[in-house]
């Protein structure tokens, strides 16, 4: 497909991979709002969170399929719609081929296209929709959170602490983002709210030393889970990635099998740059799974599909809001339906 349309990728995304944003401290991540809002099911929250993406997709599909019979021009336009929604060229080609194979030169309606798209999304995401099995490793099960500034690491840690605490597991948190006083304070607030003790040091402390202390404390206290925050770092800064590698080496001095999960939080609003983050963090930090955040802040939710088809890493959780209950295990079928507006 890329060979047939050499100018399409350049027209949509530019000649090169989108550059990383300038390295500036990310804004403090929002703490969960207080209770009092009407309770919605997860599927309702997911559909609401993906509304911008589903509205763009359904609008684009409706604009393309204005004629009755499916022809090549309509398939080409559909591919453009999907690529603009960050599904990637491979996925756009897959969907177009499925329609060409089964519907070409036959009457077709936008709803039928959406159904085919949902089926292909579920097919692509099914293999990566894997729960994080914290019972699989020794105690404490060590989760290392990595990602760029503003991706939602600290907020996600708080949500995970709440989730696992509700399951009766004992959790300890480590404020390893020692570069930002706000991140340390935020994690301490999450610890208070979830009842999880927090290992913290003054801003500017050595992060690897803090990780060592947290590993030792969690083992001594018999905690089920230790979640270690890390400083947000751009994936193209070699020296910062080197510091992350040092943290991992120190963790392994305490437990050679740790970290038992290295989760990369990805901000869905970064679009194609998220692919680059998965590549670099995967190579330097040994990422084992993904958490996709801020899907409610973008109309390009298809990026998760592109990441799944490119890297095949497990997607453990997705977030569609700031509330403590707006993080859920990833379910391919629910996501596919919500993304195409079928919920």
From TrEMBL:
PROSITE patterns linked to this entry: SRP54
Keywords, sorted A to Z: Cell membrane, Cytoplasm, GTP-binding, Hydrolase, Membrane, Nucleotide-binding, Receptor
Any one GO MF annotation of this record: signal recognition particle binding
Predominant location: membrane
Subcellular location: Cell inner membrane; Cell membrane; Cytoplasm
Domain of life according to the entry: Bacteria
Role noted for this protein: Involved in targeting and insertion of nascent membrane proteins into the cytoplasmic membrane. Acts as a receptor for the complex formed by the signal recognition particle (SRP) and the ribosome-nascent chain (RNC). Interaction with SRP-RNC leads to the transfer of the RNC complex to the Sec translocase for insertion into the membrane, the hydrolysis of GTP by both Ffh and FtsY, and the dissociation of the SRP-FtsY complex into the individual components.
Name the record gives this protein: Signal recognition particle receptor FtsY
Organism: Devosia nanyangense
């Amino acid at each position: 497909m890329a060979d047939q349309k050499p100018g399409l990728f350049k027209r949509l995304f530019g000649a090169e991979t989108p550059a990383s944003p300038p390295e500036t401290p990310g804004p403090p991540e929002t703490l969960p709002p207080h209770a009092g809002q009407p309770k919605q099911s997860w599927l309702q929250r997911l559909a609401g969170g993906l509304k911008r993406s589903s509205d763009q997709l359904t609008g684009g599909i409706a604009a393309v399929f204005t004629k009755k019979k499916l022809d090549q021009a309509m398939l080409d336009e559909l591919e453009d719609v999907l690529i603009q929604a960050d599904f990637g060229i491979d996925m756009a080609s897959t969907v177009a081929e499925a329609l060409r194979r089964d519907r070409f030169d036959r009457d077709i309606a936008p709803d039928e296209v959406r159904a085919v798209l949902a089926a292909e999304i579920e097919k692509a995401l099914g293999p990566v929709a894997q729960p994080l099995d914290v019972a699989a490793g020794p105690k404490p099960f060590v989760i290392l959170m990595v990602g760029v500034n503003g991706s939602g690491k600290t907020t996600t840690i708080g949500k995970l602490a709440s989730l696992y605490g509700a399951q009766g597991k004992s959790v300890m948190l480590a404020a390893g983002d020692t570069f930002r006083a706000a991140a340390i304070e935020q994690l301490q607030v999450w610890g208070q709210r979830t009842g999880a003790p927090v290992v913290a040091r003054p801003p500017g402390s050595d992060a690897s030393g803090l990780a060592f202390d947290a590993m030792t404390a969690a083992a001594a206290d018999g905690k089920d889970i230790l979640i270690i925050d890390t400083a947000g770092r751009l994936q193209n800064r070699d020296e910062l990635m080197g510091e992350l590698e040092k943290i991992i080496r120190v963790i392994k001095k305490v437990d050679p099998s740790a970290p038992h999960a290295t989760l990369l939080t990805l901000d869905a609003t970064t679009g194609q740059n998220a692919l680059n983050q998965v590549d670099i963090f995967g190579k330097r930090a040994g990422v084992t799974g993904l958490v996709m955040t801020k899907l409610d802040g973008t109309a390009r939710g298809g990026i998760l599909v592109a990441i799944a088809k490119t890297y095949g890493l497990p997607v453990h959780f997705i977030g569609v809001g700031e509330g403590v209950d707006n993080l859920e295990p990833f379910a391919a079928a629910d996501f596919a339906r919500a993304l195409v507006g079928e919920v």
